[in-house]
Each structure stands twice: as structure tokens, then as C-alpha cells.
Amino acid sequence: MPNFSPFDTSAAPVPAGPTGLGAYTLSLRAALQPYRPRFEGFEDGDGHEGSGPPAWSVTLPSVSGGERRHSLAPLAYREREWGDGTYPPLYCPETVRVDDDLGEEVNRRLVAWAERTGIHEGRMEEFAATGFGRLAMLAHPDSDDPDMVLIAAQMNAAWWAADDYYADETELGAAPTELPPRLALVTSAMDPPPDAGEYTVQLEEAVRGDPVLVALRSATSHVARHSSPGQVMRIRNITSQMYVSWAAYAAWRYLETPPPVWRYLAARQHDSFYTSMTLIDIVGGYELPADLFGEQRFHTALMQAGTASVLVNDLHSVAKEAADELPDSNVILLIAAEEGCSIREATERAVHLHNHFVRGFERSRRELSALPFPELKRFLRGAQGWMAGCLEWHGSTSRYQS
Ligand SMILES: CC(C)=CCC/C(C)=C(\C)COP(=O)(O)OP(=O)(O)O
């Protein structure tokens, strides 16, 4: 392996040859490859199973050429029954894949990994039954590889562990005044800051002493094995962006002053399954280039999909959230309080809002379909798959059964 100094730009191969979005991404990947081992120390026990070079270092299969197992065609929508079937239906794509064997295998690996990290110690049966492995199987239909699907199961389980232990569950030690400093440590666990001598030693001790931080760091390591540096940075930054909203909820809980619905929604739209959906291309083994990921119409579409899915979460978790001694923000509870209406009527309004976001996503997707980028089409289909799998999972997990 040539010994390139990271600061000697003359030593790096200069991207040459064909230009264009895909060509640029591939030649940049090749040019950066020699630097990568200097920065990336993957964690032992991060759940990765497989041999050969890290996925990032090989040329990823083109989604436009060769045998294409997964169609780029958009999924059909349906009015789907949910809950006890007495509420108006949710407008949502069809679930693409239910592969129980794959879901169980991913869950088995997830539980083994969770035991190593220490999250949910003393509650492992409950954690296993929650079925985050099944969620990842349902929500990421464009990979059949348990190692790739595990990435999504781990990241979601780790984000949810932070949600339970830091933000929502008073019984598990969540406390609004402790939330912001804990979230700041998450950022340092997922994105270790440069060495500060003795202070870094103390930081490391703090990270190792908190299973939630261990899990987030370990899951990020598994992500990094299969991603470009840009994709890893995307996950880190979007996690921190989501945490701004968590800080707002903590203030509202502490002050016991529920926000108006508009204000909750403004925060919730940045704290949604958009975060989880940023894993779609990583799990699929390709990369949506940053300029397409950041394209405003695409960003809007993904936020519409993420918001719709998180409203599904609010619909299923209302009883659980109302039961905490410091109730968490939930759109149904907030609509009922603001409108002075029943929970049933507030639920119907939330369903309407969900369907509004799905129809908005569909409009955005149609507008974007004119763009000639297969990765974009594949990602948008992935977002449809995510919405569908998310609805399927919320209806079947033990997490929201009271
Ligand atoms: C935790 C995670 C996977 C982040 C993305 C979506 C999100 C913010 C949540 C599902 C957390 O929301 P909430 O606290 O309402 O979830 P639960 O009702 O506790 O499952």
C-alpha cells in the first residue's frame, strides 16, 4: 500500500477521464482510497460478518447496468387498514417484502450485538421481541444480505435506545435536564473529536461507560464499513440535526408546557424517520451522490416520506406516550388539547395529515421522475418501501401493545 501523506495532495491520483455525476463519484472514491485506512479504525464486534475488502473500497455495482434484480419502477399505493380497523385508512404503498427468515436472522445478529454493547441489559427479552431486525427487513427490501440489513437494525436500535434512555422513558432514567449534555456526548461518540490528550482519555472512559454511546459508536463503525466518507458524515450530521428537536421536546416536558401543534410539527419534521431513511442507499450498496441527496426537491420528498412515517409512529404510540409521568409530545395528544376534541377525532385528523404528506411525496416523486438518475429513482422507491415497511412493523411489534 503506498504511503500517502494526507496533506500531500500531489501524491493523490487526480480524478481524470469521463466526467458526470456517477463517474465523478467513482473516481473520487478511487482517489481517496489510499487515505482511508489512516482515518478509519473499525470497531471489533460491530456486528459485521463477511470477508473481503470493505464495500467502500470496491467499485459499487452500477444501478443502471448489468442484471438489475430490483426494479426502479415506483410502488403502487393502497388505502391500508391499521390499528383496530375502526379509523380511516392510511394511504401508503404496498409492503414490498415479508421475509421472516431474513428478519429473524437479522434480529438474532442484532440481539447478539446488543448484548455485547450492554444496551437494554436486564431487558433483553423485551428488546428481542420488539423486532428491530424485522423492521429493517421490512423497510429495506432492496437488500437480501443480512449483514447490510443489520446496519439499519443497529442504527435504528441505537437511536431508539437514546430515545428511551435519554429522552422519553422516565423509568429508564430519561430526564429533560440531562438530555442536552447526553446528546452532545452522542455527537462525540459517533464523530470522535481530534485528540486532546488527557481530556480524550476521560471522554473515552465516559463513552465506554454508557451502553447507549457504545451502541451508537459501534453501529456507526458498521455503517462506515459499507459506506463512503460522505455517507458516514451524512449519518452523523443528520443525527445531530434530529437532536435539536429532542432538546426542544425536553424543554417543553421540563416546563410542562406542551407546544402548539404547528410548533411540534416543525420540530417533528426534523425528527422523523427521514433520519432512518438516510440509510436507504447504504443498505442497498450504492450511493446517491451528495448533490442529488441535497437537491431541494429530493430533500422535500424524503422529508415528506419521513414525516408520514413518523406520524404512523405517533398514531401507534399515543397510549404509551400518554402513560409516562412526564408525557412526551405526540401529535394526537396535542391536536386533542388544542382543538378540545376527542382522541378519536384527533386521530382522524392525524390520519388526514399523514395522507397529505404521502400525496405530497407522490407529487414530488413524479416531478423528480424526469431526472435521468437511476440512483435517484432507486432511492425514491426505497423511501416508498420504507413507508410501507414502517406501517407493517408498527402494526405488528410488541413495542406499542399496552
Ligand atoms: C429513534 C429513531 C429511529 C429516530 C427516528 C424517528 C424517531 C425520532 C422516533 C421513532 C422516535 O419518536 P418517538 O419517541 O415518538 O418514538 P416511540 O413512540 O418512543 O417509539
From TrEMBL:
Keyword Magnesium applies: yes
Coiled coil start-end: none
Co-factor(s): Mg(2+)
Source organism, top-level taxon: Bacteria
Gene3D superfamilies recorded: Farnesyl Diphosphate Synthase (1.10.600.10)
EC number: 4.2.3.-
EC class (word): lyase
Reactions catalysed, as given in the entry: (E)-2-methylgeranyl diphosphate + H2O = 2-methylisoborneol + diphosphate
Keywords, comma-separated and alphabetical: Lyase, Magnesium, Metal-binding
InterPro entries attached to this UniProt entry: Isoprenoid_synthase_dom_sf (IPR008949), MIB_synthase (IPR047945), Terpene_cyclase-like_2 (IPR034686)
Presence of the UniProt keyword Metal-binding in the record: yes
Database matches in Pfam families: Terpene_syn_C_2
Similarity comment: family membership: Belongs to the terpene synthase family. 2-methylisoborneol synthase subfamily.
Protein's name according to its UniProt entry: Terpene synthase
Species annotation: Nonomuraea antimicrobica
